């Protein structure tokens, strides 16, 4: 089982966004040990990244990939037994210094979206990646 730390900057999604996020976290629990750290600012990110972690930063300027490619990357990380840290910055993004730590700089979409939607989009794509890897019917 993969161990993933999901670091988000700012507030957690509320209302329906919160409910949907909780549902995806529940679904993910069979595939991943997920630790979610919510930071009020990006100033403490460095201290929150576990040592020797494969670090993915979600950023508009990152690499744009499809779900199957993403699932293959997740599978490789899982096979290697690496801990993964995924960082979703706040509305103003992250510093170049933090971005330089990324093993993978990943764009969820070339379109700009809200923090709440980006949060959910990542959780959904992570769940989709595991269903692809396990041959489940979720991905079409």
- What is the CATH architecture term? 3-Layer(aba) Sandwich
Unreliable residue runs: none
Name the CATH superfamily assignment.
SPOUT methyltransferase, trefoil knot domain
Which CATH top level class fits? Alpha Beta
Strand order of the largest sheet: 2-1-4-3-5
For the report, how would you describe the main beta sheet?
5 strands, parallel
What layout of secondary structure does this protein have?
Elements: E1 2-9, H1 16-28, E2 32-39, H2 45-48, E3 54-64, H3 67-80, E4 84-88, H4 96-99, E5 104-107, H5 115-133
Parallel strand pairs: 1-2, 1-4, 3-4, 3-5
Q: Could you describe the 3D structure shown?
A:
Strands 2-1-4-3-5 form a 5-stranded parallel β-sheet, with helices on one face. The longest helix has 19 residues, at 115-133. α1 runs parallel beside α5 (115-133) and α3 (67-80) crosses α5 (115-133). It has one domain: SPOUT methyltransferase, trefoil knot domain (Alpha/beta knot). The protein is built from 5 helices and 5 strands. Helix content is 39%, strand content 26%.
What would you say about this model in short?
The chain is α/β, with parallel strands linked by helices.
Which key features would you list for this structure?
single chain, 140 residues, alpha/beta, Alpha/beta knot, 5-stranded parallel β-sheet, 5 helices, 39% helix, 26% strand
């Amino acid at each position: 089982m993969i161990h993933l730390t999901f670091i988000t900057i700012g507030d957690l999604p509320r209302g329906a966004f919160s409910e949907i996020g909780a549902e995806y976290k529940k679904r993910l629990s069979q595939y991943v040990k997920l630790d979610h750290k919510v930071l009020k600012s990006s100033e403490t990110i460095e201290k929150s990244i576990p040592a020797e972690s494969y670090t993915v930063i979600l950023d508009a300027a990152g690499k744009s990939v499809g779900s199957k490619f993403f699932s293959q990357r997740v599978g490789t990380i899982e096979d290697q037994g690496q801990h993964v840290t995924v960082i979703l910055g706040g509305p103003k993004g992250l510093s170049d210094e933090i971005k330089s730590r990324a093993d993978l700089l990943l764009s969820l979409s070339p379109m700009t979206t809200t923090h709440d939607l980006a949060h959910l989009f990542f959780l959904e794509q992570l769940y989709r990646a595991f269903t692809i890897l396990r041959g489940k019917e979720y991905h079409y």
